[in-house]
Structures are given as structure tokens and as C-alpha cells.
Write the C-alpha cells for this entry.
Amino acid sequence: MKTVLIGLGMVADTHLTAIQHSTKGIELAAVMGRDPTRAQAFADKAKTALGYDVQVAETVQQIAQDNTVDFVIVATPPDARQELVSVLSAAGKPILMEKPIERTLQAATDIVAQCDNAQVSLGIVFQHRARAASQQLKTLLDAGALGDIATVDIRVPWWRDQAYYDAPGRGTYARDGGGVMINQAIHTLDLALWLLGPIRRLQATMGKTPLHDLEAEDWASAVFKMESGAFGNLTATTAAFPGEAESLTIQGTQAGAHLASGVLTLTHLDGRVETFGAAASTGGGADPMAFTHDWHQTILEDFATCVTTGQTPLASGASALEAHRVINAMERAHASGQRVEVTPI
């Protein structure tokens, strides 16, 4: 299958490595970026890594009109998504998109609806779902191995230095749609929602610490109640030097689960302890790209398979909207100082 990569920022190398190591016959046909010189340099690097020519596309219309392109990877900042999706979906091109879908819940909902109306598959790179330990926990939860879920604790104690936020547009509402929640913590939030189901109501506080100069928040916290009846709390920041792995802790009536750094620890109420997975870096420190390409590769290969079979991707656009709804509710709760319902647009 042939794909095109649009957007050549930090995560582009991860996609290239995922394609390079894939054994599913995925070929990078072309790349496209805002800077033609940089795009050509990336195409040359891709040719060296992959062993075949990689073209540089000048416009999204060129990609949309190419009948040999099976799907498109969109890795641009979220403020550059609307036109790309409009052109690609109209041409029937399936889209695998880096998170977040867009900057606001309304814009994200519009993109999902646009793809649905065009009957185009939309996948989101929520690679935390692809980890072996996450998959194991999903299996255990679906089987009821933890019993009824009582409490949930979501923590993202990450670190970013000021140089990270000095990059043009980073941490702004105009380009990114916000700060730590929509850019970093959205991954762990999505994982919790995928595993446990929707959050229905919450209270929240969001703000900036003295450690960073940015427009949006670098610290956020919420207390919530899930549709299942479980109570929970979330704390996320990029101001926790030197940065630690994000974690998800779940307490059930039969066992508790702790998921961190790719390792799942299951503690039964009868004292038995089980461990699954293997430790891996997750990009919680100063280097945001300090994580393996393996999870991106799983998402990529899953999406390619779904394009062929017509099945729903591991992280579909519709399912990814749940995290956007929670972030929107957190923003509303912080602004009002009140408890709010988590609702669609």
C-alpha cells in the first residue's frame, strides 16, 4: 500500500521509522511540507532509509488526485487540518491523523463528521492504545477481572523546558488549541477513556506555573465521575522536572491495576501480584521524542489493514472525540468554577 506523509515536524521521523520497519508492504510514496527545501531534504533522507525514491508533493490537490495513493498520514499542527481533510475526504482518501483532531471540540467534531459523510476512514494516532500492556489491561477489564471499578487516578507528571514553548505557536490556542491537556495529557486521557468508558461530569482547575511562559496552561487537574459510577482524578503538567512517566491506576472490587512506562501491575485483593509488559520511555522528560516507534508502527499497520478490510481502526476519529469532550468540559469547568457535564457539541 502507498501512503503520503503531510507535515514534517518532530514526529515525522517516527512515522518514517515505522514505515521502514513495517513488514506489511507499506510504501512511502511522497511527503509534503510547508518548506519545499525541508521537504526535499526529508524525501532524500527517506530514500536513504527505505531504499527507493520518495517524491515531494507540492499541493494536497496533487495527492488527492493520485489514484495510486491508498491513504494519507496527516502530521501537521492542528490549525492546518481543515483544508487538508476537506480535499482528501472529497477525493475518498482515508486519513491517519496525529492527535489532536483539531483545536476545539467543534472543529474536531466537524472533521469526524466530514469523513463520516464522505465514507472515508479516519484514524487517530493514539499510540498508547497499541502498547502490549494496554492491550492486556483492556482484555482484563472487558473480562471483568478487576470487578466493579471504584476509583481511577490519571497522572501525567511531564517536563518541558522553556525552549520547547519558545517555538513559534507552541502552547497557543491559535495553533495548538491549548496547552498540556490537548498536547500531552490527551494521550493518557484517551487511554483511560478507551479502557474504562466515558467521563460524565467533572470539576477542573487549569493554569500556568512560574516555570513556563506560554499562552495556554502547563498545569491542569480535574475530579470526575464516570458513566460506570467510578470516581476519579486527573493531574497533568509539563512543569514537573525532570519529568516522569505518565500513569493510570485503577481500583476495582477484585483487583487493582497500575499502568506506567509500558508495564502493567495487577494486584489482587487476595494478595496475588501479576506483571505484564516491558518498561519503555514515553517522552515525559525534556526530549518529547524519547519513545519507541513500535507503537506508531502498530497504529500504522492496523490502519492500513482497516483500509483494506473496511474495519474500524484501533483509534477511530469517533472514539477520539471522547478525549476532546473531556478537555472541553475541563475548560468550561475552569472558566465557570462549577461542576459541568461532559457532553457532545
Observations:
- The chain has a mean pLDDT of 96.
- The first helix runs from residue 12 to 21.
